Amino acid sequence: NCDFRSLNKMNFITRLSALCLRKSKMQQRHQSSRRPAVPLGSRILTDPSKVFEHNMWDHIQWSQEEEQNAKEKATENSLVKVQLEDQEILPEKRREELKAEERSSEHTKINSTNSFSRKNEMFEEGEKYWKKNYEGGSTSVQGYVYNEKQAKSLTDNPQGKNCGEEPGRLESFPGSDATYRILEVGCGAGNSVFPILKVLCNTPGTFLYCCDFASGAVELVKSHSSYNSAWCSAFVHDVCDDALPYPFPDEILDVILLVFVLSTIHPDRMQGVVNRLAKLLKPGGVLLFRDYGRYDTAQLRFKKGHCLSENFYVRGDGTRVYFFTKDEVWNMFNLAGLTEVQNLVDRRLQVNRKKKVKMQRVWIQSKFRKPFLLSLNNPEETTERLPYR
């Protein structure tokens, strides 16, 4: 029975990996919407004269000259940095005021009606700022924008404790009866959520959590005809806010999807985000990661004056993007206590056949696992019963 369950889990993870790849393809605007004639990853360019016969070629090897040219372009577009005072989403003074107000709720019991009203005002202010400056861009820009759900969470739980800190006192939570749980971070409008839900509805005992920074995106997910709270819980969450609790305990997730999300976060905060997500995984749980790689065409196309810091840029719509190496990715997840299952550079050649333009695409694709603990009675065996620390 154990072997059968393990096999089912591995098959499920394989299907989720395929869904992640499908999501990443949706994000590449220049790629044809036609279904590929050959399986993903198996179209190899062996004859350069046929480069414009297809939209995408897999497993591209760069020459030393191409590598050097890419480095030079990245160095050139990084010479002029964005001024520090222009890098904040909210003015520094207002950002500190919001943070101070949040901290004060930990020490003072405020009338719930007045407290909710004030945080609703903060939400409206942040929402206006978002719509004015960033609407239509990435939903993972980090700032201090509150909505009603976050305000209620702070009111009901003024200590800001994670619900996983005292699991014995937690009677129920969304998905508490499930035996296999998945979290997608940065779900957006649900490009991956609903394909996953199609699998879940035929797989008893499974449950999907999905979160996004933008309340509008989460509302789109919840209003979709395929959304069902019986096997899915969508919620607003800022992954950079360590004090903001998740709606479930730590160490209960089997899979976390982190696809084109980490690159939107400031490099100084990435490790904290990864550390927090690692705590959510149960021993043996896996984190599936895919994001932009160093010297991707998107990085080389930036003009001077868009660089925030090394390999970190701001787009014209105000959203941010970082370009990783696989060593950086390995270091982050290793420091969080996860072990490598897969960590590779996915290089592809994307072409515009009409304009005869070639684009070198680079992504990092990884899978990291939270280790099982060795059994105290038999060091050669592992167990899921002991909590991972």
TrEMBL record:
InterPro entries cross-referenced by the UniProt entry: Methyltransf_12, METTL2/6/8-like, SAM-dependent_MTases_sf
Residue ranges the record marks as coiled coil: none
Keyword Ubl conjugation: no
Protein name: METL2 protein
Gene3D superfamilies: Vaccinia Virus protein VP39 (3.40.50.150)
Bias (Basic and acidic residues): 91-109
GO BP: methylation; tRNA processing
UniProt similarity note: Belongs to the methyltransferase superfamily. METL family.
Gene that this polypeptide is encoded by: Mettl2_0
Keywords: Methyltransferase, S-adenosyl-L-methionine, Transferase, tRNA processing
Residue ranges annotated for the Methyltransferase type domain, each copy included: 183-287
Organism: Bucorvus abyssinicus (Northern ground-hornbill)
Region of interest called Disordered, as start-end residue ranges on this chain: 91-111
Molecular-function GO terms, alphabetical: tRNA (cytidine-3-)-methyltransferase activity
Record PANTHER family: METHYLTRANSFERASE-RELATED, TRNA N(3)-METHYLCYTIDINE METHYLTRANSFERASE
Pfam family name, one: Methyltransf_12
